[in-house]
Amino acid sequence: MLAVGVLAGLSVLSLLTYGYLSWDSLGLGPGGTEATRTGLGEEQGAGAPSSQPHIIFILADDQGFRDVGYHGSEIRTPTLDKLAAEGVKLENYYVQPMCTPSRSQFITGKYQIHTGLQHSIIRPTQPNCLPLDNVTLPQKLKEVGYSTHMVGKWHLGFYRRECMPTQRGFDTFFGSLLGSGDYYTHFKCDSPGICGYDLYENDNAAWDHDNGIYSTQMYTQKVQQILASHNPRKPIFLYIAYQAVHSPLQAPGKYFEHYRSINNINRRRYAAMLACLDEAINNVTLALKKYGYYDNSIIIYSSDNGGQPMAGGSNWPLRGSKGTYWEGGIRAVGFVHSPLLKNKGSVCKELVHITDWFPTLITLAEGQIDEDIQLDGYDIWETISEGRRSPRVDILHNIDPIYTKAKNGSWAAGYGIWNTAIQSAIRVNHWKLLTGNPGYSDWVPPQSFSNMGPNRWHNERISLSAGKTVWLFNITADPYERVDLSARYPDVVKQLLQRLSQFNKTAVPVRYPPKDPRSNPKLNGGVWGPWFKEDEKKKKSDKSKGANKQKKNKNKKKAN
Question: Where does the record place Basic residues bias (predicted)?
């Protein structure tokens, strides 16, 4: 217990040492000019604001836990630091370890096991999307009069027209359908020869907008246009899902200026991308003020998963990375900034999960949550705004029944309650349990990104004990997952395995279909887009019915 106590002390100390930069120390801040800043006060408040708040949800892609100024990063993020310092920092905030899972849980308020998307991500060539029987957040907000707009990365499937963002509740959509692509050309190759264009405006390829503009800047310009043309007296929901800082690592040259000293080329490029993203969010905030939205707005910022060290991201001092259920894969940068907050300038250490935004935002929008919708999220607005206790006491991080099974996992290792070969992770109060193969488990210190001097990465490596398929941590005392307590507290392990088993009884079958050759963009005018036609399926089934009829008739004749 002494070791755990020392770790708890270290974690508190490390949190206390995090500082932040402010706009004030940098003059006007990135992207602002004297004229713009002075004009903000004059143009605010165009008419009486609606009682329903404007909701702006900004989702960054692959931003590591350490990759923000107020978490001690060497990368400057003055906009994020200022917005977070004036709002509420979420320091016990969880997402999913990959793109599709986080996005699906945000937009439905449901765990992956309840949508069938519990395995991996939706691939470009798969006939798969967020199941159509799931009600989405923009659909619920439209019911109560919101104008709904999405700008950026969708990654929730597109094989049928009904899967597209405009069919799932958004009035307008401008962005990409896939998980990644070139920031300038908007082309993506899924495999050799399977390449296509991926920039859309509503339901059509946006060839007219293909001017070689870097996507972070292009998406910001689109947001500014939407805000300029909308009436601020009517509520708006803006979902801005930036492509940055996901690979490929690309950024305009001017953003490298402050990072020439970073030797590691991936980290340097990543830093430039994050600097550009920070400036973009400043420009979005200025637009909210300029066009009269800000005073009645709620800005939520979140990363979709942990950083990828091989692509420049840092989750230090957390363990693991994107794609894993260690804290480095699922504990995210997040904050809320709003003039409507009661406890501004505070830190929330209560348990919050990405599914919680669904009920929270619908309630704030004065909407209704249907009784038959079985949600996994909670309304946590009072927790964030007033500092009250979170209604959430547990998080099912996931159960993935088709992920590579751990060789030594067994029912015996799970006390007959759970097969520990299965990849799963759950948090209950202070405790976190992992089973199966949780993924890449190293700690990657900042020094690992240096190309000079001794590489400390190896000092932070850990060899997983042969045959081990269960881990237990007290995350409150040991947020860095350095002391496995599974052998010391078998009763706690059993309780958490029992909870996993209960969750598993409510799971729906996994949706992870094989590739469909009809998805090839060459068959669709060189564009990634819907390829599955409902009438084709009907024709096929009609044909097969006809063929079966003919067979029956032949058999009848033979019998006669």
Answer: 546-560
The highest-level CATH class for domain 54-392 is alpha beta
Residues acting as catalytic residues: 99, 155
Instruction: Please give the share of the chain, as a percent, with pLDDT higher than 90.
Output: 79
- Cβ neighbours around 148 below 10 Å, total: 25
For 414-429, the pLDDT digits (tens) are 999 999 999 999 999 9
Structure tokens at 518: 């009809």
- Lowest model confidence (mean pLDDT) among 102-116, 152-166, 445-459: 445-459
| SS3 label, residue 534 | helix
- The vertex-244 CA angle with 243 and 245, nearest 5°, equals 135
The alpha carbon dihedral of 109, 111, 116, 121 has a sign of positive
Angstrom CA distances, 447 to 9, 71, 264, 309, 442, stand at 23, 16, 10, 12, 14
Instruction: Quote the CA–CA distance of 529 and 521 in Å, as a whole number.
Output: 7
- Residues facing 129 on adjacent strands: 157
Task: Return residue ranges of the chain for CATH 3.40.720.10.
Answer: 54-392
Q: Which residues of the chain are in CATH 3.30.1120.10 domains?
A: 399-506
- Topology classification of domain 399-506: Arylsulfatase, C-terminal domain (3.30.1120)
